[in-house]
């Protein structure tokens, strides 16, 4: 389903969607959305996935959501699905806040690829990959026309690249080797510190 978020009668809206899901014998509900983030348009779109039940989280290899706070219809519907016994998962694309107006085909491609990976289904992408490239080129052209925005995008790129480098570095660290090195350090410090 695609459309504007209702601003009232959410319970009725969710019940009608659940009735449709029941008639169609839906086995899993997948909710897709986007959230504004400090992410540059020039990098891969980060996509997070959550499940609202421990069983769905385990089955799909996702995090169980622990979010408590304001929500939209997506969160309300996901909760309604879980209460109705239908596994529901949600995927959220982090889109650049400085170019938040839809459509964002790059985010759409990232979401659909994540759905393919997690649910092990093939989603026909059609022209979306080409549209994503065109979108990125158009945004790049617009951002380079304004020096302040271009500098801001560059700072987002540098920050994101530094985070990736740190994550890669940490993933290569051998925990046992690190523990052994720490123990050697403590022994060198003397008996007061464990040596």
UniProtKB/TrEMBL annotation:
<dbReference type="Pfam" id="PF09754">
    <property type="entry name" value="PAC2"/>
</dbReference>
<dbReference type="InterPro" id="IPR038389">
    <property type="entry name" value="PSMG2_sf"/>
</dbReference>
<dbReference type="InterPro" id="IPR019151">
    <property type="entry name" value="Proteasome_assmbl_chaperone_2"/>
</dbReference>
<protein>
    <recommendedName>
        <fullName>PAC2 family protein</fullName>
    </recommendedName>
</protein>
């Amino acid at each position: 389903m695609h459309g504007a978020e209702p601003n009232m009668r959410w319970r009725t809206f969710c019940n009608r969607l659940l009735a449709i899901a029941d008639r169609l014998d839906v086995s899993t509900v997948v909710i897709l959305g986007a959230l504004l983030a400090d992410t540059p348009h020039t990098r891969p779109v980060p996509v997070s996935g959550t499940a609202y039940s421990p069983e769905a989280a385990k089955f799909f290899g996702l995090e169980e959501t622990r979010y408590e706070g304001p929500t939209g219809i997506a969160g309300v519907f996901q909760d309604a699905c879980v209460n109705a016994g239908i596994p529901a998962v949600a995927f959220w694309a982090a889109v650049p806040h400085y170019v938040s107006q839809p459509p964002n085909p790059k985010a759409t491609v990232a979401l659909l690829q994540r759905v393919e990976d997690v649910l092990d289904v093939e989603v026909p992408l059609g022209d979306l990959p080409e549209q994503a490239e065109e979108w990125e080129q158009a945004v790049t052209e617009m951002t380079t026309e304004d020096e302040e925005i271009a500098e801001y995008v560059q700072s987002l790129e540098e920050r994101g690249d530094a985070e990736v480098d740190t994550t890669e570095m940490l993933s290569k660290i051998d925990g046992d080797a690190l523990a052994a090195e720490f123990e050697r350090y403590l022994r060198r410090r003397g008996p007061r510190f464990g040596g």
